[in-house]
Structures are given as structure tokens and as C-alpha cells.
Design goal:
The protein has two domains: 132 residues, no CATH class; 99 residues, no CATH class. It contains seven helices and no strands.
Length: 244
């Protein structure tokens, strides 16, 4: 083979190697671009989760956390992941004393990114579950607002009836006058029962994430309390006369 033929073969081989190197560099650049885009997306989701968790914490009376700040820091740290092996501290053998000992420095950045996405998806699911629970009141959470209000007012009126029976017994032994007994039965106990139900609905029937006051069904509650206590008193009088 002549010297010229050897030279031409070497040039062709070098050209092939250059093209392969260019294709490899382009593929690596595209891989890094996708990794950086994925890290940025995960970082944005982490920041949004942090802000939402701060809002949930404030709704239940906790001081604002630093989740959003931590997410930003994690995003900045993770953005160095695609550059591993190209002059990063891990690639050069430097040891970070604050680094997580469970992190494998030789792990594939793409695999790590997919795992991060899976964890973020799971965190989103858990956050939605917490929001669903926080949107329900503490008191009788599965009941409708109207049914809950009726149950509360009836319970408070029943407590008023028990107090009425105590007053009836006290009146029978002369501790309470007839006028006082009548005033409590016709006005005092119904109003106290209604006020107790109104306060209970405002305190325990309000979801943690509620932005408006829950319905308290004031007319309905007032009718229940005003009607139940005197009705119970009249029923007790009839029962006593019947038993005699």
C-alpha cells in the first residue's frame, strides 16, 4: 500500500472517529439538558408543595415551616447531579461532610431523578389526602351541615331538659320558687341551649381550611331549643299526673 493510501485511510478513520465523537457529545448534551429540565420541574413541584404545607400548617395554627426554602436548596443541590463525573466534588473524590451518607455517588442521575419524581408524586397524593381531611369538620365529619346542626341543637336542648328536671326537683323541695322555675323553663334554658349549640357549631363544625363561617342554621336551632325544653316540661307534668 502506498503512503498516500495509508494517509487516506488514516484520514477516513479519523473522520469517522470525529463524527462519532460529535454524535456522542450531542447525545450527552441532550441527556444533560433533559436532566436539568427534569430537576427544574421537580424543584418547582417541591417549592409548590412547601408553600402548600406552610398554608396547611398556618390553617391548624402551626408556625410557618421552611419547606419551600428547603425545596429551593434541594433543587440547587440536585441541579449539580447531571454534572457528576465532570469536575464535581464527587467526581474529583472530594468528600462533603454534610452529604447524605445514603446517597450513592455512582448512581445514574436519570434513575435518581425518576425516584425523586416518584417521591414527589407520592407526596402530592398524601397532601391531597390531608387537604380532604382538613376540609371536613371535627364534629360529625361525615354528616351533612343540616343534620349536624340538628344533632347539636337537639343534644344541647336535651342537656337543657336535664337541667330543667333538676330545677323541677329543686322546686318540689322548696329550693326554687315557681316563678324562677317558670322563667328558666320558658326563657333561660332554651336560650342557654341555643347559645351552646351555636357556639359548638362555630367551634367544632368549622373545617380547618374553611375560609367562611360554617352554616349554623340559627332559626332551626332556635325553634328546636325553644320548643323542646317547654315540651319536655309539659310531658313530665302529664307523666306525673298519669302515674298518680
Amino acid at each position: 500500500m502506498s503512503t498516500f493510501d495509508e494517509y487516506a485511510a488514516a484520514v477516513r478513520q479519523l473522520s469517522v472517529q470525529v463524527r462519532e465523537g460529535e454524535r456522542g457529545a450531542a447525545a450527552e448534551a441532550e441527556r444533560r439538558r433533559r436532566l436539568h429540565a427534569g430537576v427544574a420541574q421537580v424543584g418547582q413541584r417541591l417549592a409548590a408543595q412547601g408553600q402548600r404545607l406552610d398554608q396547611l400548617g398556618e390553617a391548624i395554627g402551626l408556625p410557618p415551616a421552611t419547606a419551600a426554602t428547603a425545596a429551593t436548596a434541594a433543587t440547587a443541590a440536585a441541579s449539580d447531579g447531571p454534572d457528576a463525573g465532570t469536575g464535581s466534588p464527587v467526581a474529583t473524590g472530594a468528600v462533603d461532610p454534610d452529604a447524605d451518607p445514603d446517597v450513592d455517588p455512582d448512581a445514574d442521575p436519570g434513575v435518581v431523578l425518576e425516584e425523586a419524581r416518584r417521591l414527589v408524586d407520592e407526596a402530592d397524593l398524601r397532601t391531597r389526602e390531608v387537604e380532604a381531611l382538613a376540609a371536613r369538620p371535627e364534629l360529625l365529619p361525615t354528616w351533612s351541615p343540616a343534620a349536624r346542626a340538628v344533632a347539636v341543637y337537639v343534644a344541647c336542648a336535651a342537656a337543657g331538659v336535664l337541667l330543667m328536671l333538676v330545677l323541677v326537683v329543686a322546686s318540689g323541695v322548696g329550693l326554687v320558687s315557681g316563678f324562677t322555675l317558670g322563667a328558666w323553663i320558658c326563657a333561660g334554658l332554651p336560650v342557654l341551649s341555643f347559645a351552646a349549640g351555636w357556639l359548638i357549631l362555630g367551634r367544632w363544625a368549622r373545617p380547618a381550611l374553611a375560609t367562611v363561617e360554617p352554616p349554623r342554621f340559627v332559626p332551626l336551632g332556635f325553634v328546636i331549643c325553644v320548643a323542646l325544653v317547654p315540651t319536655a316540661y309539659c310531658a313530665s307534668l302529664l307523666l306525673v299526673r298519669f302515674l298518680r
